[in-house]
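tokens incoming
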């Protein structure tokens, strides 16, 4: 089996350059590629187009890359937790494409599956539909949406093996699996890296064929975006 292990995040992102398109996995702050984001901050590359469900928060995740002005465009669904994102958008410093969450996930899945376009009713009659082809099926109007693909996909998994097979845990198994399939080059960071053949094949969520590089990450913060507790 091919060993796809690299030493750390710095080595993993070494070939990422200015002006590329990145997919970054995770949902909110859960399952985001923390180590890869830190490595990109150190590289100080710019002009990035980032495809991610969220834009992080001001001081964590993609929000850190927004602070350093490394992101040229965001393609996202929910961005309401990031004041710097809002400021850059209103000041015209950041190009933004907001997409209904289901449409975003399906466009990414289509990119990984090799499906160039599909039809969905979501967004019809709104600004989302501007400039897009529509078609009627069974008396209902649908929008044509195009696939999304990326030069690099950065994903985070709970466990992986040296051949790149991945297992996600909980909410992290949301955008990560479909983004892993939609990148020309996919880099996976995992909490635990095990030898090839140690994972139960029936429990693998992303087959290693989609992964080009994998490494065991360090010092995960796993922040909680909104902490809600019961008042006693």
């Amino acid at each position: 089996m091919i060993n796809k292990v690299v030493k750390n995040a710095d080595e993993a992102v070494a070939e990422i350059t200015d002006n590329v398109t990145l997919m970054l996995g995770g949902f909110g702050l859960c399952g985001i590629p923390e180590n890869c984001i830190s490595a990109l901050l150190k590289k100080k590359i710019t002009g990035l187009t980032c495809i991610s469900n969220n834009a992080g928060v001001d001081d964590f995740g993609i929000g850190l890359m927004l602070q350093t002005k490394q992101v040229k465009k965001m393609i996202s669904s929910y961005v309401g937790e990031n004041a710097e994102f809002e400021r850059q958008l209103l000041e015209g410093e950041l190009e933004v494409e907001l997409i209904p969450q289901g449409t975003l996930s399906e466009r990414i899945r289509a990119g990984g599956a090799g499906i160039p376009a599909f039809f969905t009713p979501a967004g019809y009659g709104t600004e989302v539909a501007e400039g897009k082809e529509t078609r009627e099926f069974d008396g209902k109007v649908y929008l044509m949406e195009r696939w999304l693909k990326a030069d690099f996909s950065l994903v985070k998994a709970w466990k992986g093996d040296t051949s790149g097979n991945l297992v996600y845990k909980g909410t992290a198994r949301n955008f990560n699996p479909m983004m892993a399939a939609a990148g020309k080059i996919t880099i996976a960071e995992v909490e635990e890296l095990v030898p090839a053949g140690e994972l139960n094949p029936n429990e693998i969520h992303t087959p290693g064929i989609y992964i080009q590089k994998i490494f065991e990450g360090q010092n995960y913060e796993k922040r909680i975006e909104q902490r809600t507790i019961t008042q006693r």
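note: The chain has a mean pLDDT of 94.
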